[in-house]
Amino acid sequence: MNQPANASENSRPPLSGGKALLLLFVLLVxxxxxxxxxVIPRLRARSELQTQTTQLATxxxxxDAPIQGSPVQELVLPGNMQAYTxxxxxxxxxxxxxxxxxxxxxxxxxxxLLAVIESPExxxxxxxxxxxxxxxxxxxxxAKIQSARYQDLLKANxxxxxxxxxxxTQEKSTGTQVESAAANVQHYxxxxxxxxxxxxxxxxxxxxxxxxxxxxxEGAGTTAGSELFHLSDEHVLRVYVNVPQVYSVAVQxxxxxxxxxxxxxxRTFTGNxxxxxxxxxxxxxxxxxEVDVNNPKGELYPGAYAQVHFKIPTTRPxxxxxxxxxxxxxxxxxxxxxxxxxxxxVPVTIGQDDGKTAAIIEGLNADDAVVQNPPDxxxxxxxxxxxxxxxxxxxxxxSGNAQGGGK
Length: 407
Hints:
407 residues, alpha+beta, conserved putative lor/sdh protein from methanococcus maripaludis s2 fold, Helix Hairpins, six-stranded antiparallel β-barrel, 34% strand
């Protein structure tokens, strides 16, 4: 039964050598096409993936050149304004307030009567002291006459020397009693004089703490620790400023300062540094500075808050960078620059820092490409992709409101 099949197979003619080669070539071509369409795209995808990974791993940084710092920097600090002369006025005698002549806001001249205190007890004590003085003077006059009489009688041996010495001593004793009584009268006259309260200097009444009929206690006003009036001389105001230690040498007497206040937008007031404490406060590390400002129109009020602007010449040239360029590392403060697409972390020393920009006084060159946005992972020598900053860097700190000090 298998013979027909075998006969059929045996009847097929064998492939010739040329056809076998052609079939092999076709198979090779098919294999090459499959290799090209399968392996090469994979290789290409792998290469693209590697390129993208490398690009993503390389940080992109924005660089820009630093700005040349100004030769004069502006230091802005808060100041407290006080009257040139400021005084609390208390009573020097006891009694009741009879009247007052000036209320708050009134301008008074030196020697003007502010108030009158009624003190009947003091008046009576003064009258008694005057009577005692008159008695002492009469006794002294009589003692003087007796002493002179006995001295004449002693020359005629009409009286004893002992009696003469007694009357002489009595004359001296009554003389000192007169002096004591006179001093007592003067004391009560002064107390009576304190019934009138006068202005000790030209100024403005800023407080009236009494009214008619108020009980007045000597040295304590109406109640313990209070005062009758408060008087301020504001024709010149003292402005006290705490200057950081780093600027203490530059802010010295003679330096000009300008003041700005919120209630006077667009206006400035000029003053001068007149004195300093010449000592650094151990707690705040600041120097207390007094700036005097003329106030002829009385526009400025004692107790007000002001911003004090000092123009300070810089002693060293500086380059200004944004504070975002500063890198705080364990080895110290650093700024990143780019050289040949490589990051370099250079140590720097900063001067003024206003919170937005920082003045670099050492460590940078004017032509350095400073990294404006350094990532925290940036290391020295790392390859970076550079993107040039189109917009110029922020204004230097000396053209804004600087607070002094540095980071």
